[in-house]
């Protein structure tokens, strides 16, 4: 099952199958979200942005 990871610094996301992924841009550890891939792809852009904002800790 694909999991959705979000970078806490730049907010970019990746769909991955395992743990402890790092961001291509920042080379930092990405945060595992509580949203599954299948759900994520059904979201509209506003809902995706809300998830990004939830996990992105940098300002
Ligand atoms: Zn990043």
What topology emerges from the helices and strands here?
Layout: E1 3-6, E2 13-16, E3 31-36, H1 37-40, H2 45-55
Antiparallel strand pairs: 1-2, 1-3
The structure holds zinc ion.
Zinc ion (ZN) binds next to loops.
Could you walk me through the main structural features you see in this protein, from its secondary elements to its overall organization?
The chain contains 2 helices and 3 strands. A 3-stranded antiparallel sheet has the order 2-1-3. A hairpin with a 6-residue loop joins β1 and β2. The chain has one domain. It has helices spanning 37-40, 45-55, and strands at residues 3-6, 13-16, 31-36. It starts with a strand and ends with a helix. Helix content is 25%, strand content 24%. The protein is of the alpha+beta class. The site of zinc ion has 8 residues, from loops. Zinc ion is lined by residues 7, 9-10, 12, 23, 25-26, 28.
């Amino acid at each position: 099952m694909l999991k959705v990871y979000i970078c806490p610094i730049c907010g970019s996301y990746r769909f991955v199958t395992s743990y402890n992924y790092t961001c291509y841009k920042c080379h930092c550890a990405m945060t595992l979200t509580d949203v599954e891939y299948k759900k994520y792809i059904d979201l509209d852009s506003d809902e995706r942005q809300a998830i990004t904002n939830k996990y992105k800790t940098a300002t």
